[in-house]
Amino acid sequence: MKEKKQRSKISIISDIILLIFSVCLVFVTCVVFYQKVYLKTFFVNGQSMWPTLNEFATDANGNIAGQHAGNSSVGYTVECGVYDTHKSSLKKIKRFDIVSTHYPNKGDEEYIKRVIGLPGEHIKFLTDKEHSGDLYINGEYVEQPIKTEILRNGKFYQYNDIVLKDNEYFVCGDNRGNSTDSRNVGPVTKDMLVGRVIAIIGTGVITTDKDGSQVVKSSKIKYQKVRFMI
């Protein structure tokens, strides 16, 4: 009976290297595919999420836009980020996540907002002077991860007190006195959610595309230390 020929160390090492290379190749391919299909870049238009987003946004003259600025225009420097559109990511949405969403009767335009209320919850914002903007969910006070002074805008909105349906979410801008959101347009349904914001990757300057629409081209984004939002 012939004995099995013992493999050389070089042969074994070569096989291990080939296996590692193959695993890495498959991993990189999956990551690239996921990135191309599910990860989308965006730029923050306006100051509705100030100061969480666009805190240091500048206008076309290089001046800080500030808390009370409206939508960003051509020449504005704004923050750019990435959101995940995969169904599994949308299923994991929790309170205070930042999302990209459509609004009822507003077409395909996307808005970057913070999730405040989850399906089935009773959402109530107080409107009295001392406690204006305080959030109560199902009758219990909930502290928000936002600077207190920007919550107290003293305004009354149509949907300040609402019970959400099983497929509805309540979203708000952090800059409460300068945001159009669920308080005045109503809750958004699950199918309106576009993606969950996962990171802020840098800043870019708004320009116009060939069709006249505002864009911040990826190649012109000034990358910085990634700021993860989840």
Structural class by helix and strand composition: alpha+beta
Strand tally is 14
Which range best describes the helical content: under 10%, 10-25%, 25-40%, 40-55%, 55-70% or over 70%?
10-25%
Strand content: 25-35%
Structure description:
The chain has four helices and 14 strands. With 230 residues, the chain is an alpha+beta fold. The strands form three sheets. Strands 1, 2, 3, 4, 9, 10, 11 and 14 form an eight-stranded antiparallel sheet that branches. It has a four-stranded antiparallel sheet with strand order 7-6-5-8, with no helix packed on it. A hairpin with a 2-residue loop joins β6 (135-137) and β7. The radius of gyration is 23 Å and the shape is globular.
In short:
It is built from 4 helices and 14 strands.
Keywords:
globular; alpha+beta; four-stranded antiparallel β-sheet; 14 strands; eight-stranded antiparallel β-sheet
Task: Set out the fold topology.
Elements: H1 9-38, E1 39-43, E2 77-84, H2 87-91, E3 98-101, E4 111-117, E5 122-125, E6 135-137, E7 140-142, H3 148-151, E8 161-163, E9 168-172, H4 182-185, E10 188-189, E11 193-205, E12 207-208, E13 214-215, E14 222-228
Antiparallel strand pairs: 1-2, 2-11, 3-4, 3-11, 4-9, 5-6, 5-8, 6-7, 9-10, 11-14, 12-13
